[in-house]
Automatic annotation (TrEMBL):
Entry keywords, A to Z: Oxidoreductase
Organism: Duganella fentianensis
Annotated Fe-containing alcohol dehydrogenase-like C-terminal domain residues: 187-354
Pfam families hit by this protein: ADH_Fe_C, Fe-ADH
Protein name: Iron-containing alcohol dehydrogenase
PROSITE patterns according to UniProt: ADH_IRON_2
Signal sequence residues: none
PANTHER family on file: ALCOHOL DEHYDROGENASE YQHD (PTHR43633)
Record's GO cellular component terms: cytosol
Cofactor annotation: Fe cation
């Protein structure tokens, strides 16, 4: 196992009817900004519940944060925070709203052009406003981590950043808030959480037994709950398991002390920025192809994944690896999520366009061995055609 420090300060308040707890979670004197997305938070009644829980506090609202939150939109929230001297940010929504809120939290106190935060991956954040979240979409893990991803529409740049100051103070996770999600978003959430787990697990062995077993447990849980999660929106037990699994997939626990490979995400971000494909859907395009191209350097873990997650134990090593990759592809396809670029009408031109973006963003040494250079990214994308 590698050396590590693990500190996750986010308080999780989990369960049905927990939005009312906001009253105790946010300081009474706070000047609060509620941030939310499009119409869903109002339509589902969650926003009304939040307003009620905040009682007599000074509260303002900022709506309209779009999926894959944009710098352009978020800078309007930054202006509001500065003008009104707001001092507590409450995100009500999915990963996009929470990520956007993290950007606002840092940008409002940043001395300089805030886009530098994204350009420097968050290393230049010195202070940030406190944030809390009410999660309405289980997928990203943003509710219990210090990372975020923002897009600058003008330049089609979608960049990740992180800083320990950006952990939410608390996150309210009420699984019944997910009942209103379209099936497509649930499928996206299952795939996003699955790929987060894979990217911290499917590298090379470092004798990290409990991280491996945790990761395999999360993967098996996602496979098991996928059918009812999609088919039965108001199945509370299933949604509770999905919500907690997605949080655990990216809250630092399974990634502590192990190598990580975020190449699928970095290539996926470029596909979203260029072609507006949902985040999780880009991951389903890249991952099976990446596993195939990287099958030699990931051999030991691919065999472990085949045996322990998919119960594939017979055949030659290469046959087992091929079968495990096929099972992964079938899992995504079974959720209605394509694993081929052609499903989006994309061909060889798109491969070259993504490569140009990767180069522009310095994404030229990806993967656990930093061996995914542009030539290898080209092979991966070609394998995904
Ligand atoms: O905008 P509204 O009307 O609210 O609708 C949203 C949105 O259209 C809707 N929705 C959310 N909760 C709902 C609901 N509809 C009905 N009922 C509810 N309860 O869902 C749509 C998608 O929301 P979004 O927040 O965009 O989805 P998701 O949570 O998948 O977030 C994706 C973003 O997170 C980033 C992605 O890159 C992408 O920008 N990620 C953030 C990570 C992190 N911070 O650690 C890690 C991830 O890998 C990911 O990169
Ligand atoms: Zn993701």
């Amino acid at each position: 196992m590698k050396n590590f420090e693990f500190h996750n300060p986010t308080r999780i308040v989990f369960g049905a009817e927990t939005v009312g707890r906001l009253d105790q979670l946010i300081p009474a004197q706070a000047r609060v900004l509620i941030l939310y997305g499009g119409a869903s938070a109002e339509k589902t009644g969650t926003l009304a519940e939040v307003r009620q829980a905040l009682g007599q506090r000074s509260v303002q609202e900022f709506g309209g944060i779009e999926p894959n939150p944009s710098y352009e939109t978020l800078m309007r929230a930054v202006q509001l925070v500065r003008a009104e001297q707001l001092d507590f940010l409450l995100a009500v929504g999915g990963g996009s709203v929470i990520d956007g809120t993290k950007f606002v939290a840092a940008a409002a106190l940043y001395d300089g052009e805030p886009w530098e935060i994204a350009e420097q991956g968050g290393a230049n954040i010195r202070q940030a406003l406190p944030i809390g979240t009410v999660l309405t979409l289980p997928a990203t893990g943003s509710e219990m981590n210090s990372g975020a991803v923002v897009t600058r529409k003008a330049t089609q740049a979608k960049l990740p950043f992180r800083n320990a100051l950006l952990y939410p103070r608390f996150s309210v996770l009420d699984p019944s808030k997910t009942f209103t999600l379209p099936a497509k978003q649930i499928a996206n959430g299952l795939v996003d959480a699955y790929v987060h787990t894979i990217e911290q697990y499917l590298t090379y062995p470092v004798q990290a037994h409990v991280q491996d077993r945790f990761a395999e447990g999360l993967l098996q849980t996602l496979i098991e709950i996928a059918p009812p999660a999609v088919a039965t929106p108001d199945d509370y037990a299933t949604r509770a398991n999905l919500m907690w699994t997605a949080t655990l997939a990216l809250n630092g626990l399974i990634g502590a002390g192990v190598p990580q490979d975020w190449a699928t995400h970095m290539i996926g971000h470029e596909l979203t920025a260029l072609y507006d494909i949902d985040h999780a859907r880009t991951l389903a395009l890249v991952l099976p192809a990446l596993l195939d191209v990287q099958r030699d350097s990931k051999r030991a873990k691919l065999l472990q994944y085949a045996a322990r997650v998919w119960d594939i134990r017979s055949g030659s090593e290469d046959e087992r690896i091929t079968a495990a990759i096929a099972s992964t592809r079938h899992f995504f396809e079974g959720l209605g999520i394509p694993t081929r670029l052609s499903a989006y009408g994309l061909g060889p031109d798109a491969v070259e366009a993504v490569l140009r973006q990767l180069q522009a963003h310095g994404m030229t040494a990806l993967g656990e061995h930093r061996d995914i250079d542009l030539a290898r990214s080209r092979r991966i994308l070609q394998a995904a055609l």
